[in-house]
Structure formats: structure tokens, C-alpha cells
Amino acid sequence: MSGRRGSRPDLRSLSAEALGELVAELGEKPYRARQVFRWLHRNGAASLEEMTDLPTRLRAALAERCDLRTLSRAEERRSGDGTIKWTWRTADGLLVESVYMPHGGDGEGEAGNRPRRTLCVSTQVGCAMGCTFCLTGTMGLARNLGAGEIADQVHRANRRLVELGEGPAPRPLTNLVFMGMGEPLHNYEELKGALGLLLHPDGPDFSHRHVTVSTSGLVPEIERLGRETPVKLAISLNATTDAQREALMPVDRRWPIAALLEACRRFPMRQGRRITFEYVLLGGVNDSDDDAGRLARLVSGIPAKVNLIPYNASPGLGFAAPSPERVEAFRRILDARRVTAVVRRNRGRDIAAACGQLAAEGGPGDPRRRAPAGAAPR
Ligand code: SAH
Ligand code: SF4
Fold it and tell me: For the segment 28-38, what is each residue's pLDDT rounded down to a tens digit?
């Protein structure tokens, strides 16, 4: 069962249906299950004690059968540009991060001038995929997060944002991107469980149009995601030939570019939807005019938009950011081929909250404390 570690399930990982069964087993009326679910996922209750309108006997019975794993806030760093990075501590003492990005009326992205408040969510402690340019990739995988721990990043962020006056209670966040630490599709079951909780009408009730899962390219799970969930897809492409991509992303040896793009072509596209292709521009590595031309050819025929992400250099990994002129030249080539491309503004760089900078400094997974343990699954 989802979220079960050891013998006691995590109450927050239970689906609405599983919670319904548990409450029925305890001999309680069905509406009680809904009440508990709302406490957990709409109000983001941190403990059973908070659920003041539940009978004490039900709270005691739940406490006896389940754990309630709530993340605690270990650190909060706020950037000059409004970005906030939180480091959360799990019940077993590991550190994971989420990044909040307000986008207010600056015309950025699809939403035009409607203000968006996005949370970038982690799905694993570390990552096993071993991409050579990515700080999280150097950590190796400590463990998967449970569905409840994935969802709880959203709950804790919502609560904190209400406290900070960033938006209306109970849910200031409008959008979610699964682009934090970890490879979401390498933790498929728990990711799917978390999506079920976060999109549930009795929970935070996010619209599938506002939720994006990013993957380095696990083809079978891309297909499952398309079949089993309604959310949007982003692909970290990052290179235009297999030789180049293999050197950056070991996953390419298992699922080369052709197979990956084929899965994208088959991905169910609701009306007007596009797949986002993320392309980290690494100075002198994948940022030539030829790369831009190949990229345009690769995505042609797929309803796509390209996010160009100038590399955030992490010391010791051996890559550099491209010059702003190179980034602009690359974008122009895509533009000339009618490929929608935006250069992602680097947000929160001053607080190490930008893409690929998430590595929970000082935690058990900090590369400065632990040798890289990660090898990509072959
Ligand atoms: N594991 C998933 C989601 C998290 S990574 C995936 O790879 O898609 C989110 C994005 O950050 C990916 O597109 C990745 O290519 C990019 N990224 C990683 N390190 C980066 C860095 N140092 N600078 C810029 N982008 C980076
Ligand atoms: Fe993992 Fe994504 Fe980083 Fe690759 S880019 S190591 S898949 S987090």
C-alpha cells in the first residue's frame, strides 16, 4: 500500500478511497473519512490534535493504526526576486527542498497577466539518474518520498504563504511543477498517489491544467502517466544527438532520443496542450547553431514549446553557463523555425534555488558530506 513503510501506513499517503475503507473498518460513518481527508489535504493539518471536530475516539483509533508524517521546516531562504526556498525535514530526519516562485502580471508564460504562484516540488531525496551537470544528480538516491510527503510540501508551503500574506487561504498556490529534487517517474506509484491527493476536490483541488511533471525520459512511465493521470508533461531533453545526450544523461542509453520522442508523440494531448521540452544550455557543449537547428527538427510535428535554461553553474561539475549572446542566438534560430522558445529567467539564484541547485546543503545527501552514490538505472 502506498506510503506504508514498516508496518504502519502514513495517514497522509492514503487515497480518499483507502481512507474511506479505514474509517469504515473502525466502525465510523462515511462522512468522517471525508472530514479527515479535508483536514489532511485541504487544511494541511499537521497533527491529529488539530482535527478538533473529530471525536476523540476516532483520533485515538487513527493514531493507533497509522503514523501521520508531517514535514517540519528546517530552513527558509528568501530571494530578492520573491522566490522562497524551503528545506523540509522528514520524520526520519532527511532533508528535501521546495521552491516557491511568484509570477505577477509580467506577461511571462501562458497565463499572460494573471498572477501565478508556483511551487516546485521534490519527489525523492536525491536522484539516481546521475545526470552529470546536475547537483541533485551527484547526491545519489537516499530514498523515495511517500505520496503524503510529496503532497505535504504543498500543504506546508500553502500554510506558510498564508502566514506571509502571499495569497488567499487555504491555497495561495495556483500551479505545481514536479521539477525539484529527484526523478518523478522513478518514483511513479508515490507520484501518482500524490497527484490523486493534490487534484482531489476535497483536497487542494489543483486543476490538471496547472500541474506539470518533468522527466529525464523514462519512456514506459511516460506512457503510464499519460494513461493514468491528466497532468501536463515536460521532458528534459538537453541534447540533440544520442552521443551528446548519453554523456550528459545516462538514461539516454536505455531510452534514446528517438524512443523518447515517439513516447511524446503518443502522449495524450488535451485540446491546445503542448509538451514542454527543457533544454539546459551548457556553454560550449550543446549551445551551437547546429544544436539549435537539430532541436527544431527533433520537435517538429510535436505540439511543443521549448524552455531554454541557461546553466546555473555548480562548482566542481565542470560545466559553464553560455554567454547571453549565445542564448539569444540559439533562441532566434528556434524562432526562425517557428518553434516556440522562451528563455527561463533564472530565479532565486542568490539563494541556490535555481534549477539544478537543489541539494539540501548539509543534509545527509549533501555532496560535500557524502560521496556520490548514484548510478543511473540501466
Ligand atoms: N528529474 C526531473 C525533474 C527535476 S530536474 C528532470 O530531470 O526532468 C529539473 C530541470 O532542471 C531539468 O530540466 C534539468 O535538466 C534542469 N537542471 C538540472 N541542473 C541544472 C543546472 N545546473 N542549471 C540549469 N538547469 C538544470
Ligand atoms: Fe535527476 Fe533530473 Fe537532476 Fe537528472 S536532471 S540528475 S533526472 S534531478
Answer: 999 999 999 99
